[in-house]
Each structure stands twice: as structure tokens, then as C-alpha cells.
């Protein structure tokens, strides 16, 4: 059987797809219940200055352990949540929870930049900026302690609308970072147009350092571009001392990755905060 999948595109229908659709529907239902029942958690991955080794922030990463399925990775359920629109509700929870945590850290005398992933659909909500402002003011967190990680897919949408929104967030004092930089299909023109603070070099470019010449060339170019545009630059997915040392030599500002720590629950993160006291 052949099915239309959009204008001029056809693919063969396989009985397997019934199973896929069913398991997706079940996962979707489980995801909604997980939010209702408070089953999502946030883990925090330390971000460090490359020169001093000092802690400068933490990226919030969502975690879900389902009773039946065990740990479900965000790579699995976030795309599904994006397709169904449920990411808007999840995203609101993540933002509120991360902001609440940042307030705790601030009150404990160790104020820390907390970095939150924002999905394209979430960003596109007409009231997104207002929600961010409201979340901050209700919790009493200075906007300067919040960073939003945006993907390039967000920036390729209607330029005027995006620009307005980014300017509004920026004037609140919120930091803006481009996540997975270099993996999207957007033009680089947005870097001079939008009030971006930071580029996050995707881990796919970090992996090959220092041996892979192409990866090294790309990372060098990204850092020099960031310098020229007065953006700061952080490398993601740093797993080895050789990668860290290379990034330091190339003039990268910050890093995060398993070399220092994976994302950990707040009680374990306290260990990194001690160094700030
Ligand atoms: P991301 O924002 O680029 O996050 C980095 C991912 O790389 C995380 O995977 C992190 O655990 C992992 N990682 C960190 N250091 C290393 C390393 O040294 N080596 C390797 N191999 N991996 C490392 P995770 O937590 O599975 O998240 C995957 C993606 O799911 C994230 O990519 C982000 O796009 C999305 N995501 C996670 N939490 C949220 C959230 O709260 N909201 C939204 N919208 N998306 C989220
Ligand atoms: Mg991220
Ligand atoms: Mg990333
Ligand atoms: Mg990524």
C-alpha cells in the first residue's frame, strides 16, 4: 500500500507503523501523566571557565524515570513533545523549576547562572516573553541569573517577530545562547542582527579534537568569529583532558562535559558550589 505523506511525496505503508503509532500514543499519555504527577526532575551540568576552572553556571537538563520504561532520555521524548505541542507545558515547568533552583542557590550565598533549553514551539508562543518575565518576578530571581538556550531553528523563523522577542528578553537582562551551534541550517546573518550573548559549540565538533583537522579548523573559525562579534563561547561535550587543553589553547572561554561532570541532581550539584564559597 502506498500512502501520500504530503504534496508529491509517497512512502510505503508498513504494518509496523501501527505499533509505532500506538507506542508513541502510550508514551505521550505517560508523559502527560508524568507532568501531572510531578515525575520530571531537573539535573544540572556544571559549566566552567576554561582558564580558571571556576564554576560559572549550570545547564538544566530534564530527566524522567517512568515506572514501566525506566529512564526515558530527552532525546526520545522531547521530539515527541514538540510534535504534539506538549513541550509548551513541559517547557513552562522546566523554566519555573530551574528558576526556583537558581533562587535557592542565590539564597544560599552561591548565586549561579542557570541555563535553560527552550524549544522552538515554546519560543513561538505569543506570550513567551511575558511568561519568562512573570516566572522571574514571581520567584524573585534577577534576570541576569537566567540564560536561555535557543537553537538555530528558532532564529530562522519570521525575523521581525524573533528580533522583537529577543530584544525584549535581552532588555529584561536574560542571557541568550545559541545551542548546538553549527548544526543548524540558518545563515550566520542573525549573529549580527540578534542580541545573542554566547555560542555553544556543538559536541559533534568537540569530539574530534585535537586530531581531526576539520573539527579543529571549524572550532578555530567559530571561536574567532565569536571574538569578532564579541560573543562568548562555550564548548559542549568535553570528555577528555586533551579536548579541554586544546579548547583552552584555541581561546575558548568556557566548557561543560563529562570530563568535569554529567548533569547531576541538585543535592550532588552542591559539591560544585562549595568551591564558590
Ligand atoms: P543539549 O541541550 O545540547 O544538551 C547536551 C546533551 O549532551 C545532554 O543530553 C547532556 O547530558 C549531554 N552531554 C553533556 N556532556 C556530555 C559529554 O561530555 N559527552 C556526551 N556524549 N554527552 C554529553 P540530554 O540530557 O540527553 O539532552 C539531550 C537534548 O535534549 C538536549 O541537548 C536538549 O536539546 C534536549 N533537552 C534536555 N532537557 C531539555 C529541556 O528541559 N527542555 C528542552 N526543550 N529540551 C531539553
Ligand atoms: Mg542545551
Ligand atoms: Mg547542545
Ligand atoms: Mg545537543
TrEMBL record:
Part of the full-length chain shown: 525 to 801 of 801
Top-rank taxon: Bacteria
Annotated organism of origin: Curvibacter cyanobacteriorum
Protein name (record): EAL domain-containing protein
Annotated ranges, domain EAL: 24-277
Amino acid at each position: 500500500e502506498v500512502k501520500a505523506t504530503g504534496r508529491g511525496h509517497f512512502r510505503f505503508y508498513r504494518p509496523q507503523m501501527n505499533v509505532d503509532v500506538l507506542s508513541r500514543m502510550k508514551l505521550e499519555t505517560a508523559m502527560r501523566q508524568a507532568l501531572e504527577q510531578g515525575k520530571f526532575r531537573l539535573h544540572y551540568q556544571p559549566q566552567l571557565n576554561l582558564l580558571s576552572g571556576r564554576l560559572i553556571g549550570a545547564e538544566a537538563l530534564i530527566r524522567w524515570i517512568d515506572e514501566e520504561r525506566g529512564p526515558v532520555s530527552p532525546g526520545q521524548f522531547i521530539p515527541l513533545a514538540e510534535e504534539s505541542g506538549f513541550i509548551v507545558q513541559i517547557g513552562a515547568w522546566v523554566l519555573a523549576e530551574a528558576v526556583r533552583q537558581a533562587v535557592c542557590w542565590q539564597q544560599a550565598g552561591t548565586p549561579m547562572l542557570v541555563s535553560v533549553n527552550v524549544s522552538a514551539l515554546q519560543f513561538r508562543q505569543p506570550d513567551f516573553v511575558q511568561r519568562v518575565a512573570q516566572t522571574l518576578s514571581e520567584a524573585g530571581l534577577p534576570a541576569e541569573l537566567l540564560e536561555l538556550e535557543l537553537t538555530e531553528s528558532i532564529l530562522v523563523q519570521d525575523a521581525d517577530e524573533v528580533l522583537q522577542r529577543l530584544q525584549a528578553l535581552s532588555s529584561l537582562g536574560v542571557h541568550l545562547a545559541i545551542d548546538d551551534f553549527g548544526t543548524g541550517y540558518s545563515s550566520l546573518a542573525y549573529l549580527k542582527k540578534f542580541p545573542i550573548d554566547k555560542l555553544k559549540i556543538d559536541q559533534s565538533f568537540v569530539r574530534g579534537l585535537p586530531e581531526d583537522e576539520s573539527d579543529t579548523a571549524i572550532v578555530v573559525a567559530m571561536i574567532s568569529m565569536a571574538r569578532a562579534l564579541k560573543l562568548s563561547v562555550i564548548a559542549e561535550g568535553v570528555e577528555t583532558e586533551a579536548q579541554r587543553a586544546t579548547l583552552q589553547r584555541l581561546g575558548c572561554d568556557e566548557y561543560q562535559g563529562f570530563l568535569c561532570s554529567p548533569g547531576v541532581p541538585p543535592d550532588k550539584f552542591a559539591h560544585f558550589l562549595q568551591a564558590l564559597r
